[in-house]
Fold:
Amino acid sequence: MPRDPGSADLSAIVPVILAGGRGRRLWPLSTAARPKPFLKLPGGKSFLQKTVERVAGLKAPLIVCAARHRALVMEQAQAGEIICEPEPRGTAPAIAAAAHLLAARGDPLMLVMPSDHAIREPDILLDAASRGLRAAQAGILVTFGVTPHAPSVHYGYIKAGEALENGLHRIESFVEKPGRETARAYLRSGSYFWNSGIFLFSAKTYLARLKRQQAEMHDQAYKSVRSALRRNNSVFLDRESFSACPALSIDYAVMEREAECAVIPVSMGWRDLGTWLSLLAAAMER
Structure:
């Protein structure tokens, strides 16, 4: 279980958990009606439930999912709020909707994470988040780079540059999935880290950078929240506005285009369980 993060002043962070999915990975176990985040793992808990456990000491999570999966989220997790997408548009619009919702209530820090990863040592993630607090509060887009233990060709990489305080580094570049020989060179260099897809930044920082890089997405995401239908703890984004958002990942839409970004290298037993082989390997590590 995650440690109590109060001493590190993490209690003001809002976890934003991305639980979208089309049910294409891990098919036929994963389907459109019940995609990977909601599948039960060995031990009886789902990917989503394990993700929520990792941030148990922070504020109640904001979970972003497809509207059709709202009932599954409510069944499996206690969320502060649920943002319901009318259709998938990628991680950048999903995070934008969450940021618009949160920015209207102040400027909280958002710890954004996918719901379908395995992390054996979540305490290390929270410790890294505590080291990234000052940078995130100062307007830096912070991400977490996993120290590679093998020359994987299945993950994207982040090249770390100039060292900053608290173990952070400026990001020199993002690299797509490499070939085997290139991956071996990355491993030998010690400067490349697997791209975990986990981020820490303030709501207003993300929106300001999104406005600069993807103005249409920023504006349409705002409209989708402003015109949303609210029921209990659920926010149903306006279909017309949200569907007008360009379908892009946060890496392509923002991170690769911005200079004020930093990476925190971490070794936390991380895996992206996107294939049957990776799922088997994670099960064997238990």
